[in-house]
Write a structure and sequence with these properties.
about 210 residues, alpha+beta, three-stranded antiparallel sheet, about 15% strand
Length: about 210
Amino acid sequence: MDIKIWLDNIHEHVCCPVCTTRFTNPKQLPCLHSFCLHCLQRIQQTSGIRDTISCPECRRKFRIPGNGNLNAFPTNFRINSLLDALPVTECKMSGIKCGSCEKTSAESTYCFTCCSFWCDDCLPLHNRIKIFKEHHVLALKDFRDEDFENILKQPAFCGKHEKKECELFCQVCKISICNVCTLTDHEGHAKNALEDAAEKRKKRITAAIE
């Protein structure tokens, strides 16, 4: 599908089936269905059962890891990537909020390194910072198809430690984690590189399909 046509239909992929609004902290159940964390928490409270939850879509029941902590379910990074791309598709209608001053403007620039938008007033400040000199920035009006695709391919960030990139896979908890996580919740757990874990999963899926 053409990237522009796909972006025009992006809204149908970023809404939670439970609350029917845009995902907030999307969590993925083992059945691969995703829901807002707060929606799952409301379902858990309504059921009165702490250690298991029933998927609102397929009705399969799953044990909740981490002593009933729904936040232990993996974050759906694919949906988060779509949410990151969504403001770009809406800029002509409502403008984009600057990641620095939060002013809304249709004339914005995106920094692929910071993974955030900058208005025309704040962009000179960004460019004056020495460590930002090598950052890749591009005005929205100059975006090409491959630039939209690059936003969707941005690295996954840890849901617990802001702006920390997930680089490892915990083999015990079966989730993606950042380097800070290895020293806290996942200390002593067996881990491997995220790319290696992804490649193994791909082979298992391919084998299952075949």
